[in-house]
Batch of 2 targets.
Target 1
Amino acid sequence: MLCGKTFDVILCDVKLPDANGVDLVKKLRETAPAWEVILLTAYGNIPDGVRAIQQGAFDYITKGNDNDKIIPLIHRAIEKTTLRQRVENLEKRVGERYSFETILGQSAALRRLVDLARKVAATGATVLLTGETGTGKEVFAQAIHQAGSRSGKNFVALNCSTFSRELLESELFGHAKGAFTGALKDKKGFVEEANGGTLLLDEIGEMPLDLQAKLLRVLETSEFIRVGENKPSKSSFRLIAATNKDLKAESEQQRFRPDLYFRLNVFALQLPPLRERVADIEPLVRHFIQEFCAKMKKPLLAYEPDFLAALQAYHWPGNVRELKNCLERSLILAGNEPLSASLLPFEFSLPVKAGQNPSAFSLNSAEKLQIQKVLNHTKGNKAEAARLLEIGIATLYRKIDEYGL
């Protein structure tokens, strides 16, 4: 009778013609866990009441003065179902926001990386994310968490470079009340908060060696000790570590524990810098322009070919984070006019000769852009740039002078 229908609250009598309401609660909760069931009876007794609540009933009440009892009870039950729906919608939105589908880019390097991340997400294995600052390591960590079996649990992130050694231990493992000056109450650490979920340790290469030993113990035994306590506590979580350092080289130099490095390096993903995936710049530009225009309550602005060409030629030491900041600045300066290269900081400028109309589609512009990319790649080494471009060094100098590079 109830199949195919949706309810927030069900009022049910205990004595039914063909069933017992207390027994029916269990079946209803199994069929539709989101429904709240209020049981009514003229002959209330404690055993039935206890069993009804154990079966999942919202409440069990005796009849009499029904309006005074039932109406407020229905309101509370509806509030509970509404809150549950809001939480479910929020979790769905969070899942959509941090899914692999939201990682923008069409370069082969990024697509390969996403494919590898999808495969490891399903396994629960420890992941080591490496790459320059601003390449999106936390974005990948979130996506791995959301695609894994722990997606319904906590995702917590701790940046190991932002705390002193003492504070980092407290943030990581928690502390007991009175453990040190200012410890006014017990505090859970990130390891405990991540129980059942995922812990991202960003900039793990900055973690002091003695704390690395304690982290290794947690990974091997699932046990940790809060600061100021002696007894161990337990926490089971998936670890994702991120760093812009070469941990292998750091371990060889005794600046990082080799045993922890091997424990972390189960599945390593190297995130390429933005300058090595120029094809991803345009979709990122479109996305950030749309995001910031909505935020600034501007009409959706277009961009000129020279604007995109300048962005694609730049070497992006700050990677995607720098691109995002650059676009926000340009949109502030643009007013409601299309974005052009003149809005970019001086290091982005691509000077052209007077009277020329720069176009991303002209041969000169394409040649200029290619030379700029190669020079960025070789960090200004003109001999190496000439070799990669397969032109003579004298020709390269002439082109650099001609294009004002």
Note: The radius of gyration is 30 Å.
Target 2
Amino acid sequence: MIKFIDDTEIGMLGLDAILADLYSQGRKADDDTVEEIMNRLEAKKNYIPSSERARKEYSYSLLKEYRKYIKDQTGKNR
């Protein structure tokens, strides 16, 4: 589930598995990684808008979610 700036939340098929895979590869939370997340979500038939503005909002929200995932995983490994 990702949460947007306006507090809208949507579920994304396969998001947890994608984040786990990227984390296991040691991928950093950056623009390249968030683009990879969006590509993988699209491959799993999740709707990602084509407009530049909407993609930026998705990127921001997915990057925030991946950073949270990394923080949660780091906390578990202490």
Note: The chain has a mean pLDDT of 93.
